[in-house]
């Protein structure tokens, strides 16, 4: 209870004791400079991690480099997710290069958007280059799957061969 009262008294607006604290150097050394604790530096850190609430303009929703609106992207994701429900059983019976490519594309896009969403939500703020690495891995991975479809037995036949072991 005492700690709650102390925290409340230390964090009251502009006259907050926490905002008025300055770090005092413990020794006098001319080669080491100490920067005092300021409210603006701590507020900038807090503001960096704070989630921003709407309303957002359409430009903010779309982002700087997005091709489509968020709502359109969401609809395409749902179309692909629902399409996979019928596509996967159909791939067992209808095999061929078109089915291989459609199945590869749908499964790849579904996984790409899922992992991309996790990276953008949780990791990109701390590791900014992870987005570029993920795009590079995704391009190489999709190129490998397309190469496998055209130059080997294809995804559907490969799954059937694995099941027959």
From TrEMBL:
It holds the Pfam family CybS. InterPro entries: CybS, SQR/QFR_C/D. This is Succinate dehydrogenase [ubiquinone] cytochrome b small subunit. Heme b binds at residue 110. GO terms for cellular component: mitochondrial inner membrane. Belongs to the CybS family. It comes from Arion vulgaris. The lineage of its organism: Eukaryota, Metazoa, Spiralia, Lophotrochozoa, Mollusca. A ubiquinone binds at residue 122. Gene3D superfamilies: Fumarate reductase/succinate dehydrogenase, transmembrane subunit. The chain crosses the membrane at residues 80-113, 133-150. One of its GO terms (biological process) is mitochondrial electron transport, succinate to ubiquinone.
